Amino acid sequence: MSTSLVFVHGRYADSGDWVGAINTGLVAAGRQTLPDEVDTVQLDYSDVLHDVLAAMPARDIELTEPWLDYARHQRMVRQSMHPFTSRPTSPYDFFPKEWVTRFLMNRMPEIQRYRAQPEVRSAVRARCMEQLPKGDLIIVGHSLGSVVTFDLLHYLPKDTRVKLLLTIGSPMARRWWRETLAEFRGHFPTGQVGTWVNLVNKGDWVTAGDGIHLWYPQAIDTFASIGLGVHGETRYLASRPAGVAIGDALSRSPRR
Fold first, then answer.
1. Contact at 8 Å (CB) between 3 and 256?
2. Which of 47, 76, 89, 199 keeps 20 to 30 A from 127, CA to CA?
3. φ, ψ (nearest 5 deg) of residue 68
4. Smallest Cα–Cα separation from 173: which of 221, 127, 130, 112?
5. At what angle do helices 109-116 and 97-105 cross, to 10 degrees?
């Protein structure tokens, strides 16, 4: 079965050349560029996110059977990602990070609605589900897209397998997002997700240089230095750690 590479954008859908950036990262990591048989798909939920009337009834989480090999599989992935797992000092370590997050989010009404209203999250999820390919997936979630993807994972069709979840520029370490996602605590779908790698730019103002493993232990935190203030998806995806994660997932046999 072929693999689809899925990109979930952040606050806005006007992403750069994310496919080209992935190929740059693969080359930097010494891997082959994307094979022709890999379909690339961007999930676009921006119309729902920015619609003040968007809403759908919330759904209960459908629990999946845990996969006992998830931890063993993560240890294998951690070995290949080991050169990137040491957290460097971030220039934002000296800032009041939670206060800055609140300040920024108070100026983004669509983000506030998504965070505060389960009906909006449900509408965004439904829009993404309409576009989600079937079969084996590699999913990249950028910024808000990492939150949307994490939510989406808990509602996947039972015949869908995610070989790699790669979150980049994720704000999920911040308390406001941890509170929003608290309903998923203890329910990560290890039976459908092969591995989860979280990539952080130490100079990213959204992540403030922080990983998420402390609150989401299923994730492997990795770090890169790609520039002060850099948050864009193309710079992340063109980095070597992104290339290692995606390249290895493409060459890895599906986990069943």
1. no
2. 199
3. -65, -20
4. 221
5. 110
Give Dmax over CA atoms of the chain in angstroms: 48
Across the chain, the runs of DSSP E, i.e. the strands, are 3-8, 39-43, 136-142, 161-168, 196-201, 220-224
**Distance between CA atoms of residues 163 and 160, nearest Å:** 10
pLDDT, tens digit, for every residue of 167-187? 999 999 999 899 999 999 888
Q: Which two tokens stand for residue 224?
A: 């890169």
Q: What is the DSSP letter of 84?
A: G
* End-to-end alpha carbon distance in the chain: 13
The hierarchical CATH code for the domain 3-56+63-212 is 3.40.50
Q: Which residue, chain included where needed, has tokens 């911040």?
A: 174
- Chain-centre distance for alpha carbon 102: 21
Which residues, in sequence order, are CB contacts of 97 under 8 Å at separation 6+? 174, 208, 210
Percentage of the chain surpassing pLDDT 90? 71
